[in-house]
Amino acid sequence: MTQAAVYKRVLLKLSGEALMGRREYGLDMDMLGAIANDIKAVVAMGVEVCVVIGGGNIFRGVSGAASGMDRAQADYMGMLATVMNALAMQSVLEKRGVPTRVQSAIPMATVCEPYIRRRAERHMEKGRVVVFAAGTGNPYFTTDTAAALRANEMNCDALLKGTQVDGVYSADPRKVPDATRYDQLTYRTVLAEDLAVMDAAAISLARENRLPIIVFNIHAPGAFAQVMRGEGAFTKIVEN
User: Fold this and answer.
1) Which of 11, 17, 50, 112 has the fewest CB atoms in 10 Å of its CB?
2) Is the domain 9-238 a CATH 3.30.390.30 member?
3) pLDDT attached to residue 2
């Protein structure tokens, strides 16, 4: 280890929008590269890392359903979008010398492995980054819920949510300048005040298994590694 990490094994949750950079849709390779550099730095600390990425930069199931498409069908399309993002992340990580495996909840053996819990754990034990794709494999569940599920299945010490801002606020600080920023919250408060962190199913799953959720700014260079050392700006969501 280059420097002591607070956690041994973590899951990093990224939205698809986090990969867009300043684009209106799709992938920004500079942004992907910056995130990959941060993940590489954390792996170098001896931390075992797995990742869940949303698909909103390509297709969002809820939006498709709102446009008149069948909700389940739209959600499956969104899951396929997450596979595309996962493959892109694998590519940029491996170009940086970080061995990476993609596991999909929807089997597609030509492009990636199927999701197998024990195999995923073994990959991480060997120092490989595992990117979980296709959400839970079921419609009506978000990638936030998939992240909480996979983090628990992998026995992660924490779930890290990389966002556009440096923690949880009472309102969007980009729209409400005097919004209150929280250093620490309880699961109950997040649910009761309907704070826009993750959906209620994800928060409830984390609460049930006492999985800490840490919210930080994924676009701040080096922030991921800082959080792993217990430094920098972030909001921690725990039981008490």
Assistant:
1) 17
2) no
3) 47
